[in-house]
Design brief:
This protein has about 400 residues and is mainly β. The protein is built from one helix and 30 strands. This is 3-carboxymuconate cyclase.
């Protein structure tokens, strides 16, 4: 038994190293204050631990996106502001003990859900689901923001109840840093904006999807990881559609002035077999080694995972994470489908090595960490979990040495 424990501990040590994770969560039912929680991930004898270090409640009612792109010792929190007069971006200082402290805030258009820093982290673009908008800001050296642009969309309602208005859900910069795409779930399009020499955004021709697709998030990929538009290997934009639960692949080109265009080359479901009724796709991301594409499926608990309470034998229903192998022609092959660890995986993130995946399971209010095989892309056993959140979790951010 002692040898078994030592071997298991050694196995975990090879894939689970000390790290911190920051997790945002909505206000609980009895509260109007959301939280950003600091978790400590450490090795243990036979298991890894995921322990709460601190909780910060200074970012409003609905913190929903965390960004540490400037690498300046701060975390920038997007707050949707459901129970606040206005939405906001809050600047939090990271302490050595994991404690977060607010030092600045800017009120912005309602309903922001995603941020994207650009221009060498001197500016940021924000997607607004609730406010039907795209906004941009100058990022100041002291960690504050100055408003630059606001684009408000008045598109007509779509065919689905969720499409009563424009709902911009994600902001993603292209690998060359020249333009940003914004999937708009409400208007069935991916909005495209080029970045000018003045760092202002200019609207270009959108990518139109079929009606009722509901594009939610997106990720860029090039086979060799070094995009040069118009040359091989091609660069592709993968768009995940929430309402139809599919992924579409677009080949990216640019004209002489750098304006991008997109050609659809492939589309696929997120399940190997029959698609469960009511499933809702959410996050999409390329693995750190550029070899795989991962996507999360919600509202279809096709798996179950062991209860973290050793005294409780009842298994926990689990949604799933699908792993694709992208090919040079833009097509995708499903190579793995695994449990997310709980219900409604709104977000997930891989560590630097790509051998661990942390999943924010919104409805089950848990963060679950799984081993991942970097060679095959397969997600393996759960090595740590934190179930003790007051509100629904929605985003997880790694911090590693």
């Amino acid at each position: 038994m002692a040898l078994h424990k030592l071997l298991l501990a050694a196995s975990l040590a090879s894939s689970v190293s000390a790290a911190r994770l920051y997790v945002s969560s909505y206000a609980a039912n009895s509260s109007t204050v959301g939280k950003v929680t600091t978790l400590d991930l450490k090795n243990g004898l036979g298991a890894a631990s995921l322990i709460k270090l601190s909780e910060n409640s200074e970012s409003g009612s609905n913190p929903t996106w965390l960004d540490a792109s400037p690498d300046d010792g701060n975390i920038y929190v997007i707050n949707e502001g459901w129970f606040d007069p206005l939405a906001s971006i809050t600047s939090l200082k990271k302490g050595k003990d994991g404690k977060l402290t607010k030092f600045a805030k800017i009120d912005i258009v309602q309903g922001p859900v995603s941020s994207q820093f650009y221009n060498k982290n001197k500016n940021v673009a924000v997607a607004h689901y609730g406010g039907s908008a795209i906004t941009s800001y100058k990022f100041n050296k002291n960690g504050t923001f100055t408003t630059q642009q606001e684009f408000i969309f008045k598109t007509p309602p779509g065919p689905r109840p969720e499409q009563e208005a424009s709902h911009v859900h994600h902001s993603v910069i292209d690998p060359t840093g020249k333009f940003i795409v914004f999937p708009d779930l409400g208007s069935d399009e991916v909005r495209v904006y080029t970045i000018g020499k003045d760092n202002l955004l200019t609207a270009q021709k959108s990518i139109k999807t079929p009606a009722a697709y509901g594009p939610r998030h997106a990720a860029f990929w090039t086979a060799n990881g070094a995009p040069v538009y118009g040359q091989k290997p091609s660069t592709y934009l993968f768009v995940i559609h929430e309402l139809i639960n599919r992924v579409t692949s677009y080949r990216v080109s640019t004209d002489a002035s750098g304006v991008p265009s997109f050609t659809q080359v492939f589309e696929t479901e997120l399940y190997k077999g029959e698609k469960p009724v009511g499933t809702r796709a959410a996050e999409i991301s390329v693995s750190p080694d550029n070899q795989f594409l991962l996507a999360s499926n919600r509202n279809a608990t096709i798996f179950s995972v062991p209860n973290p309470d050793p005294k409780n034998s009842t298994k926990i229903p689990s949604d799933s994470i699908t792993t694709f192998k992208p090919k040079a022609d833009g097509s995708l092959e499903i190579v793995d489908q695994a449990a997310s660890g709980g219900s409604f995986p709104r977000h997930f993130a891989l560590n630097k090595k790509g051998d661990l995946i942390a999943v924010a399971n919104q409805r089950s209010k848990s963060v679950d960490i799984f081993k991942r095989n970097v060679k095959t892309g397969a997600i393996g056993e759960r090595v740590a979990t934190q179930q003790n959140f007051d509100g629904e979790v929605n985003f997880v951010l790694w911090e590693e040495d």
